[in-house]
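ugh ok so i messed up the first submission bc i forgot one of the chains. this is the corrected input, ALL of the components this time, i swear. 225 residues overall. if the numbers dont match what u have on ur side tell me asap before i send this to the collaborators (the ones from the other lab, u know who)
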Amino acid sequence: QVQLVQSGAEVKKPGASVKVSCKASGYTFTTFYIHWVRQAPGQGLEWMGIINPSGGSTSYAQKFQGRVTMTRDTSTTTVYMQLNSLASEDTAMYYCGRGLIVADIWGQGTMVTVSS
Amino acid sequence: EIVLTQSPGTLSLSPGERATLSCRASQSVSSTYLAWYQQKPGQAPSLLIHGASIRATGIPDRFSGSGSGTDFTLTISRLEPEDFAVYYCQQYGRSLTWTFGQGTKVEIK
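and heres the new structure output, hopefully the right one now
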């Protein structure tokens, strides 16, 4: 079946980087964009950026420009989101979602905790 | 950048009642690019409505979306126990960007 499976929870120290993966299966990987969205504890959804798995082009939210990098590996049908210079405010659940205008399939989420 | 403002923040209703959720945009939004998601505790969001009024696959017809321009509405005609959740509107904008509203929590009264 169509699914996105994300990597497991991470605990990082302030200033470190985290790389979250999102593995796609059940469909042609290159035909659907992937968005990344995060949600701080008890808060709403915040869009981070999008990657086109076909050519690898990206678009990032201004808030994360210079600190986030989204990549893809077509051989493993996996998309990655790396966030650098982590701070406590980056503690959140990170989700990947399939689609361009909307996301019809979502990953299960990856909890990233930033703590000294 | 378009800002989406949802109201009310919390809606306290009983099962069987009608829920009306609002999403107002700071600038006109094409209906094609307006969607609603439901999120239950501990779960990822799930797509309810796209194109402002088109139910996603498998979504029951008690959910309906309407609106145009800057004012959009999600209506749940008769609340079922599984409908108590947080609802977000989302807009697809220029340069492949998304914007979310801050969410409306529908809670049991």
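quick check: Strands of chain B lie at 4-7, 10-13, 19-29, 34-39, 46-50, 54-55, 63-76, 86-92, 98-100, 104-108. that seems consistent at least. The radius of gyration of chain B is 13 Å.
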